[in-house]
Amino acid sequence: MPRVLSEWWNNLFFELQSCEQIESAFSTLSRASQDLGFAYYAFGYVSRTPFCSRNIFIKSSYPELWISRYREKKYLEIDPVAKLDSGDLTPAIWSEDFFAGAKHVWDEAKSAGLAIGISQPCWDTRGQFGVLSLARNDLALSSDEIKALRPFLAALGHLSMSCISTICERQKHTTTDISLTRREIEILRWTADGKSAKGISNALEISVDTVNFHLKNCMRKFNASSKTSATAYAIAYGLL
């Protein structure tokens, strides 16, 4: 385990800044997990959009046979790691109690070499939720090790979310081509607060036609069917 958190964090942070592909970032993060004493690393997050059918991204260094089995049996639907409370950032220790509702998943994971594990919920600055998991086949986690791991897990979770989600969005071109003017941001913020076009025009001392002009521009940029939808996407993308 790294002796100096600040040095470890800085080195990892700057190395990840140069990563432009998921594979290179994942390789770097996997090495970081080994620094913490774990042979395996996994990270998953839920995309911010589309709102009604959000995409789930999962990347891991788990054994290939286990990954295939996990997908084949759709274990994601019952895996307690995937059901961690987004409002609680306390790391979850893998145990019989933790997997009480999916004992067969736990049994198979142990057979695959994932006997000891810990999962860290994490958020990014735009409200996107993910989970980092570290696993190994032996050496049970002691209370002292768990206590020592806490700051490292938080750091690695933050880096994983920031780096991987940014690369994914860049590759999909979801936000890189979208920019809002100062006035558009202002109007969308008033819209988010529930103001009508007339109310916004009064607040900003501009005409209703001008308000609607800017709202239509925002709808076009987000390919949204309404001002409400455009506002929701702007919030989801962290533009407001």
From TrEMBL:
Residues 173-238 form the HTH luxR-type domain. Pfam families: Autoind_bind, GerE. It comes from the Bacteria. CDD domains: LuxR_C_like (cd06170). GO terms for molecular function: DNA binding. Keywords: DNA-binding, Transcription, Transcription regulation. PROSITE patterns: HTH_LUXR_2. Gene3D superfamilies: Transcription factor LuxR-like, autoinducer-binding domain, Winged helix-like DNA-binding domain superfamily/Winged helix DNA-binding domain. One of its GO terms (biological process) is regulation of DNA-templated transcription. PANTHER family: DNA-BINDING TRANSCRIPTIONAL ACTIVATOR DEVR_DOSR, HTH LUXR-TYPE DOMAIN-CONTAINING PROTEIN. This is HTH luxR-type domain-containing protein. The lineage of its organism: Bacteria, Pseudomonadati, Pseudomonadota, Betaproteobacteria, Burkholderiales.
